[in-house]
Design the sequence.
């Protein structure tokens, strides 16, 4: 009998003693060249095991194969907290991180399709205008001349001229849009400055910002602005910075517009205070660049054509149509380039993104679309024996599209790769070769392996996931009657075809349809604008990620820390700033971070718990102040449910804090510690944290974009209860959603389709879920009928 070669004995990835984040000494064996799905409630430790342990260590080991010089330019990764990791292969992670929202980043630039088109046009375009960079909207044209001295042997000064032809439109600098300030939002021209004409936040009459203008002497402060002469209006709005004495103090005077641009528009929108962000959104208008008509390209790049098509036309086409156009180009001199470009474009169609255009800004893609755009480059790869790690690849996918995604993952596996998937959807769990279920709860109540084995074993295993795997939401017996309607007429955003629809108010309305059918365009593009015009406050909770550093936590993000600090300050008769770890109360050794970082150049930096404050982040003197028998660090270590009781009664009773904690518990985050860094939260937890924050905003209409993203089957029930409570309290709730349980629970469904891109953009059904199931006239109807067993 022949002996098995030693190399064939490495068929498993072994993990022993993983303790990253909330994992409790987890030890598992994962089969290679199989599809393994990791399940468990949100926050049970799936991402900590798959991304922060297995994928992170693989990446770190690969980085260590480079020279110290090269490593100096790479991000430094610390070794995960695990005893043994054995049998690792190269890991390629495809996560849900939104792609950069840089205004110049498009689907084409993110997938190399633009780079190939630029080469194509530089070779075949007529008239010939220059190299590939002449078609790049990220490259400005540059001309320079002068003298350079070359210090080699005998010094020699040479006359030099330099020019580079770029494709950037000089007016909008490759952004496609130009910004304008709406003057009507800056001041009321019927009033004078003395009457408080300036309506910008922070420019109240009597304040220094206001006195800068009213006491400047350039114009009469008692004259209405509409009566200013041309020069006076110029001095008021556009004057260059000039030092002068105003009310006896040396100040710099400059026009209102440049001052607002510097003080408000130059800041990151996310970091602004809510009232300033609201003002900026009102006052700044983005208009299509008149020079390039939104194509981002200079005149030269727009003049060169292949078969009557410019590169701007090619990028604006739907990708499936662009692929057909490329197929028609028969040019032997660029045959390899055409083959590669065609393969990339066909991959888009295969993965269900054929409805996009290459000039679509990446910041406007949904989480699911962004993830699939990242998959494009791996589909045709000839690498095998690679570990692919996916984070909820079904996010943003209609049940119809999930089938396609399943086939893609199985294809990657069949090429001899190990595929690890973190997922909640039963349709994807069903195709797994191996399942690892983490839990049993979330946060500190999770972090252990509850089950590993086959899907059949999981069903019979009795874990939370196993019990909910065959859950089916029943259609509601009775649906609520609308209290009114919000008419949308002639909507044409993106691919919408002059859509007319009435959105019912006072009920739970769900907007469905395959990915790319126009749901977000209808809701965000038309509904939010329309309802704003009607004066109904709209609270929109989209999928954009929460930005947060190690110092941010649920208490700072939700504004909970403010009432807590004030309560501590009042009880101890000291000032609130002492109870902020980012302000006066911070431990001086670690500056309130709780850990001390040691930078080791190209090696991974080391974070050690601060010896002075023992990770509590505060000075010892601050921890002597108590509220209800607890110090501030003990309060921040409490989970939400415990803190909710703590602030409800007794000495620590703080209604403002209690209200915020109730909302956090409502969205199912009762297990979260108040001081847990935001960087350690999973995608589903961040989505719900954001939802809890937005629930406090005053508004009649709540618009939620896929609130079930990142939620376990058991958590979806929680969410449905929350949506019901919102509607019962008199609010209108509009949800964009693919999850059949939410559709079944709706009072009214608006289904868009029938396909994606220019095959969509029409209303194919509106009515109750029961009617949709009975009619089975659309893809959504068929899937919903199968789900509820209709």
Sequence:
């Amino acid at each position: 009998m022949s002996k098995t070669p030693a190399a064939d004995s490495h068929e498993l990835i072994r993990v022993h003693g993983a303790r990253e984040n909330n994992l409790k000494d987890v030890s598992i064996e994962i089969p290679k060249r199989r599809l393994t799905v990791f399940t468990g409630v949100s926050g049970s430790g799936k991402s900590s095991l798959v991304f922060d342990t297995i994928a992170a260590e693989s990446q770190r080991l690969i980085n260590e194969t480079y020279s110290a010089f090269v490593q100096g330019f790479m991000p430094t990764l610390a070794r995960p907290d695990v005893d043994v990791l054995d049998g690792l292969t190269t890991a390629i992670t495809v996560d849900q991180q939104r792609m950069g929202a840089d205004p110049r980043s498009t689907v084409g630039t993110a997938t190399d399709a633009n780079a190939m088109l630029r080469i194509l046009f530089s070779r075949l375009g007529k008239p010939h205008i220059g190299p590939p960079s002449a078609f790049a909207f990220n490259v400005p044209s540059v001309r320079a001349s002068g003298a350079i001295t070359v210090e080699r042997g005998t010094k020699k000064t040479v006359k030099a001229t330099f020019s580079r032809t770029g494709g950037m439109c000089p007016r909008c600098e490759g952004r496609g849009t130009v910004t304008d300030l709406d003057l009507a939002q800056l001041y009321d021209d019927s009033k004078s400055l003395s009457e408080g004409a300036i309506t910008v936040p922070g420019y109240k009459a009597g304040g220094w910002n206001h006195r800068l203008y009213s006491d400047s002497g350039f114009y009469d402060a008692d004259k209405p602005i509409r009566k200013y002469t041309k020069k006076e209006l110029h001095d008021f709005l556009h004057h260059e910075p000039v030092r002068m004495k105003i009310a006896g103090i040396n100040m710099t005077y400059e026009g209102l517009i440049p001052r607002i641009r510097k003080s408000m528009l130059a800041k990151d929108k996310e970091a602004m205070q809510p009232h300033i962000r609201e003002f900026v959104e009102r006052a700044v208008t983005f208009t299509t660049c008149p020079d390039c008509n939104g194509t981002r390209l200079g005149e030269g790049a727009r003049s060169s054509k292949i078969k009557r098509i410019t590169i701007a036309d090619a990028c604006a086409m739907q990708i499936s149509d662009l692929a057909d156009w490329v197929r028609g180009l028969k040019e032997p001199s660029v045959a390899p380039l055409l083959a590669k470009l065609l393969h990339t474009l066909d991959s888009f169609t295969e993965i269900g993104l054929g409805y996009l255009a290459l000039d679509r800004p990446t910041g406007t893609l949904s989480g699911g679309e962004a993830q699939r755009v990242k998959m494009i480059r791996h589909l045709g790869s000839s690498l095998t024996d690679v570990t692919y790690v996916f984070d909820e690849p079904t996010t943003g996918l209609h049940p119809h599209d999930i089938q396609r995604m399943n086939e893609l993952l199985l294809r990657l596996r069949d090429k001899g790769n190990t595929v690890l998937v973190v997922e909640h959807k039963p349709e994807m769990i069903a195709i797994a070769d191996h399942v690892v279920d983490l839990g049993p709860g979330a946060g500190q109540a999770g972090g252990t392996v509850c089950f590993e084995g086959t899907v059949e074993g999981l069903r019979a295993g009795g874990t939370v996931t196993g019990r909910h795997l065959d859950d089916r939401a029943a259609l509601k017996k009775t649906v609520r009657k609308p209290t009114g309607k919000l008419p949308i007429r002639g909507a044409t955003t993106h691919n919408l075809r002059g859509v007319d629809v009435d959105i019912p108010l006072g009920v739970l309305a769900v907007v469905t349809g395959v990915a790319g059918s126009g749901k977000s365009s209808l809701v965000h593009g038309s509904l939010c604008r329309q309802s704003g015009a009607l004066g109904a406050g709209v609270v929109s909770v989209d999928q954009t990620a929460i930005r947060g550093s190690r110092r941010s936590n649920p208490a700072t993000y939700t504004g909970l820390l403010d009432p807590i600090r004030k309560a501590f300050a009042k009880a101890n008769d000291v000032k609130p700033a002492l109870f902020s770890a980012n302000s006066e109360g911070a431990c001086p050794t670690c500056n309130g971070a709780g850990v001390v970082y040691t930078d080791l150049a190209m090696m991974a930096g080391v974070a050690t718990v601060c010896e002075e404050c023992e990770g509590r982040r505060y000075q010892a003197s601050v921890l002597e102040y108590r509220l209800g028998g607890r110090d501030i660090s003990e309060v921040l270590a409490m989970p939400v449910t415990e803190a909710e009781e703590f602030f409800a009664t007794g000495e620590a009773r703080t209604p403002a804090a209690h209200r915020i904690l109730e909302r956090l518990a409502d969205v199912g985050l009762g297990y979260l510690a108040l001081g847990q860094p935001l960087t350690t939260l999973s995608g589903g937890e961040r989505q719900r944290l954001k939802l809890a924050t937005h629930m406090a905003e005053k508004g009649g209409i709540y618009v939620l974009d896929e609130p079930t993203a990142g939620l376990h089957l058991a958590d979806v029930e929680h969410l449905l209860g929350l949506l019901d409570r919102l509607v019962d309290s008199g609010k209108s709730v509009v949800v964009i959603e693919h999850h059949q349980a939410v559709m079944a629970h709706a009072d009214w469904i608006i289904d868009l389709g029938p396909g994606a891109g220019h095959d969509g953009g029409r209303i194919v059904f509106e009515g109750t879920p029961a009617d949709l199931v009975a009619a089975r006239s659309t893809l959504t109807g068929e899937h919903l009928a199968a789900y509820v067993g209709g």
